[in-house]
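In this notation, each integer encodes one residue's backbone shape. One such record reads:

___
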Amino acid sequence: MDAIRLRFPQGLFAALREQLLADTERESFALLFGQRHRINTRTMVKIVDVCHPRPEDYESRGLAHLHLRREYVYDRLVEMQRRGDVDTLIDVHTHPFSERGAAFSVVDDRDEVLFHQWLNDTLDGIHYASIVLSRGDYSARLWEYEDGRPRARSARIKTQTILERWPCLEDLDDPALLPAALEPEQGFLARSTLALGLDVLRHIVRDQCVAVVGVGGLGSAIAENLVHSGFHHLHLIDHDHVEMTNLNRIVGAYASDAKQCRLKVEVVAEHLRRINPEARIETHPVMIEDERLLPALVESDWILLSTDSHSSRYATQTLALRFGIPLIAAGSNISVEEGRMTDMSGEVILARQGDRLCLNCLGRVAPTQIAAETVGGLGEVLERRGYVSGRAVKEPAVKTLNALIAALAVETLINQYTGRPTVPILVYEGHALPRLYPDTDSVTQRRKDCFHCA
């Protein structure tokens, strides 16, 4: 059975630890509100909000015990039922007396079983999980009923970036066990380790999964960069086939692939497996709206988006926001007027859950374009009336621009592991004097009350 994921928005888990563990003399407590998603055998709880009790909400506190007033918990349950965005209650408490080895005590087990049974008997549709923090690690679990009896299932905390990660007691492994790819003499990633550090590469290789949505000219270059950078588990998502006009930019595609009309995901996956036979490359030749993709997306730590339609970009972002998955969206553009290039540019947008920034509030997806692409017959009407243009026209494209934007996108991702500075929007302009700069204006002027991310 897959481990359960408790996915936190950017910065929240670090802030929670800092506040709760600030008191080293007494146990501390917080309640989290979450939104549970069950996809096949996978369960994910997206953390939505946190509630810290006031000093008067405690009946008593000590180094190895705490008791909350019942009214505090009841009030939070009433608040949950009034809201429409949460269905899971997660309690968090500390063991400040423990340096490492966070584990639920016998008292914790007894109290949580009783509380879970009370919730199950009293309220419909409320799920329950718990987290215990020591000063150096954590343990987490989700309570469920199995054969009429309460059962605790182990859970893992997922943060938006690896920098916020906190060790899990159940996952502590032997640092001497080094993946073959990281062997200092003959390892596939030996040179990368020298540049990025062993700890960074160890995280990337062992347990990081990335979904690449769109594996055309830009997405295939992104996928190749990911494998070269050490990512061992990729989901490639694209329903399209290779055409002759794609061969100037799709990484790993040959003329024979276009003649056979092979799927882009299969062609690119074959290329990536040649680079690293140990990599786990999974292919999904479907559109992003296909519900069969949900298990792959739920287990992904990042989504890298590189499609060129507004509807697919909007659908991808909707899923990222729904499941709390951090998103990096990359795009490129070449405009030619009367035989002269007027624009050659691209951008990379970093949108982590909790950053309160998305493609919608930035104006990067247009409702009219989405309607033209998704409503049968409407596209032709809107095009005739001048609301959209050039839907059937092949866009200019060159590999050099795609390669540059793909490298910037993967560099943005790697910086989430190394801690190097990143910006929400990075823009490249190359049609005149090439330059690279952060787009601070779009970030400042975005809609702060965005329905999607705020």
